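Severity: low
Component: inverse-folding endpoint
Summary: output formatting inconsistent between runs
Steps to reproduce: submit the following structure tokens with default settings.
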């Protein structure tokens, strides 16, 4: 085998890369663009791997099997140990849905495709990414895919084409062009997928296969290039942030910086090269792979256990702890395998790799298929976790596009020809069913409910065609049946303001521009509600407007189960009352105005039963979750606030509208 001359400065570059990533992930001030450390790794990998392949090919000694065996020896042992440890810790720490996702991530990563999984989920910078212990393996998947395909491509081009370097450069340009396009049109794919990242690895590869020449750069030129190149990397590390469109054109800075440093330091002994070659930098570079592997699970699990975040001192301690784990992994896992003190033969390492892939892959798949193995939770934690599931009865009552007309309504109370009221709305109307059922039975009232998830029960404001069709079907059914009362219940603020996270997908848009404007959304909602009430009143219906329950800032079953797993108190969880009042201010004012101007319009508000004198809108009662997520009441929650519907049932009863 032809060996590549060792360059201390490249290990120093690895240190720059891993320090950038780790400091960024641990939130060190100023390192806002530390994510470009991955791009530094990509260029280094492209250069070193291609250098090895090309020298062996020139010597006539290259073997695909030997190459892949060396890659397996270098990458897989430490990776598999980290994945196994992450799964083991997750068993004791993670809520079911998170453990299920971890199992899915492990299954994908051992097949070198975790980047494909993450490209279909939330973005790299989203808050939800902070609870994915194996998110960082996306970059390893990209490299592993490159190691599989690139040797084949290089062999094909170099053996068939005279100007194969130009062809390879054309592939680089093609990948870069697609990356630039994807950053604007498909940013998640641009970040995670091989063909949109390949140009970075190919930049290092092109440097490795440059034709040999006698000319050597002058010391002054090498110094200038190395200083400028380091400046490019630092500008990206210190100047970029999560809002920077990336990779695409902005990735040119770190990529060209690494290419420049490798070239310049290969020409002359530069000041930057000496800095990178110091003992500390080389030492960090040697353990950079293992440190990269361990730092992210440590960060994720510590934040997960802390629930409400970590102090700067705690983060510093955790970063040091991850460094120690990285060193131990390098010393006792990486090095013995790399130096062939363990599984020295090619067949032995490949067979062991296959065993590891199958073992961890099937373990991850089993965790996924078992829904995160909820049986491992304590009784209380499991009770909270299970609150996320809607009962089959509720799901059956929520219409979809295929629901036949004879099943559009769900009936509650005594079976009778005299149905007195219709409850009409979106999934928040569905969530009220346990309370409606209890009240209907207690008061001997017959009523029906019609709901469709994400569909506001107001004409002309539906943002999707199936909602308009659903509302039309309800209106047609109302014309064919006699209802004395109509109850409108929905997550009103979703359509006026969007999600609490800021997502405006369901919010009412300006018809002229298609953009969200708060004042326009409020005006359209007010007009649509007035028109709906006018039409209902004209048809002789008593109208009831149901205010929405307090929207929480947490996924309630998930949060409570996490706290229960760690024996943490849950009684202080919930939205601050003032926040609920603030979000609902316009809607509350509108409802009150409509009720004040028409005795045939009444308002029902569940919030007083959920929000207490302690200033919180509660999410838990006697060890039970009151919500299924951050906005829908659970069965327990709906039954708990059943009393807020008492005015409706009392009114129906007093008017003699009980079932015959």
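Observed output (run 2 of 3):
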């Amino acid at each position: 085998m032809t060996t590549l001359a060792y360059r201390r400065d490249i290990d120093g570059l690895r240190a720059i890369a891993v320090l950038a990533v780790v400091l960024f992930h641990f939130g060190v001030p100023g390192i806002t663009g530390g994510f470009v450390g991955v791009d530094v790794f990509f260029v280094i990998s492209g250069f070193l791997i291609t250098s090895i392949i090309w020298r062996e090919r020139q010597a006539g000694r290259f073997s695909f099997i030997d190459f892949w065996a060396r890659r397996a020896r270098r990458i897989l042992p430490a990776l598999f140990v980290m994945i196994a440890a992450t799964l083991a810790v997750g068993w004791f720490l993670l809520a079911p849905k998170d453990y299920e996702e971890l199992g899915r991530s492990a299954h994908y990563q051992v097949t070198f495709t975790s980047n494909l999984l993450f490209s279909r989920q939330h973005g790299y910078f989203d808050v939800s990414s902070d609870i994915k212990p194996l998110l960082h393996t996306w970059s390893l998947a990209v490299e592993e895919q490159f190691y599989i395909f690139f040797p084949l491509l290089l062999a094909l081009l170099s053996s068939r084409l005279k100007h194969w370097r130009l062809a390879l450069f054309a592939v680089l340009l093609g990948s870069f062009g697609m990356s630039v396009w994807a950053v604007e049109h498909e940013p998640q794919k641009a970040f995670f997928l091989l063909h949109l990242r390949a140009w970075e690895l190919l930049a290092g590869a092109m440097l490795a296969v440059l034709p040999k020449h006698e000319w050597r750069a002058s010391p002054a030129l090498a110094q200038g290039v190395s200083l400028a190149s380091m400046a490019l990397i630092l500008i990206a590390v210190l100047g970029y942030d999560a809002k920077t469109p990336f990779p695409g054109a902005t990735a040119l800075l770190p990529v060209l910086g690494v290419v420049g440093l490798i070239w310049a330091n290969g020409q002359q002994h530069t000041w930057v090269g000496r800095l990178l070659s110091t003992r500390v930098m080389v030492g960090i570079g040697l353990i950079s792979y293992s440190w990269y592997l361990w730092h992210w699970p440590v960060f994720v699990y510590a934040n997960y256990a802390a629930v409400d975040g970590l102090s700067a001192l705690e983060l510093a301690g955790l970063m040091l702890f991850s460094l120690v784990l990285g060193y131990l992994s390098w010393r006792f896992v990486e090095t013995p395998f790399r130096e062939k003190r363990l599984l020295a033969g090619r067949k032995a390492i490949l067979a062991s790799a296959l065993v590891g892939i199958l073992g961890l892959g099937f373990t991850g798949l089993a965790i996924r298929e078992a829904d995160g193995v909820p049986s491992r939770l304590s009784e209380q934690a499991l009770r909270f976790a299970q609150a996320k599931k809607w009962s089959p009865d509720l799901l059956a009552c929520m219409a979809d596009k295929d629901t036949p007309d004879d099943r559009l309504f769900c009936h509650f109370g005594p079976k009778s020809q005299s149905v007195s009221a219709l409850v009409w709305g979106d999934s928040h109307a569905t969530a009220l069913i346990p309370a409606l059922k209890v009240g209907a039975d207690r008061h001997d009232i017959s009523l029906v409910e019609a709901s469709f998830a994400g569909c506001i029960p107001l004409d002309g404001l539906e943002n999707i065609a199936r909602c308009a069709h659903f509302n039309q079907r309800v209106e047609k059914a109302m014309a064919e049946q006699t209802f004395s009362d109509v109850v409108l219940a929905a997550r009103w603020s979703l359509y006026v303001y969007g999600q609490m996270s800021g997502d405006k997908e369901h919010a009412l848009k300006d018809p002229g521009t298609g953009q969200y404007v708060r004042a326009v959304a409020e005006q359209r909602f007010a007009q649509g509600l007035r028109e709906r009430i006018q039409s209902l009143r004209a048809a002789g219906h008593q109208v009831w407007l149901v205010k929405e329950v307090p929207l929480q800032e947490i996924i309630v079953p998930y949060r409570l189960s996490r706290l229960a797993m760690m024996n943490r108190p849950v009684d202080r969880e919930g939205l601050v009352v003032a926040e609920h009042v603030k979000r609902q201010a316009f809607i509350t004012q509108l409802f009150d105005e409509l009720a004040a101007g028409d005795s045939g319009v009444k308002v029902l508000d569940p919030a007083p039963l959920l929000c207490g004198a302690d200033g919180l809108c509660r999410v838990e009662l006697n060890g039970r979750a009151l919500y299924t997520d951050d906005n829908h009441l659970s069965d327990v929650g709906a039954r708990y606030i059943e009393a807020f519907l008492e005015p409706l049932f009392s009114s129906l009863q007093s008017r003699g509208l009980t079932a015959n």
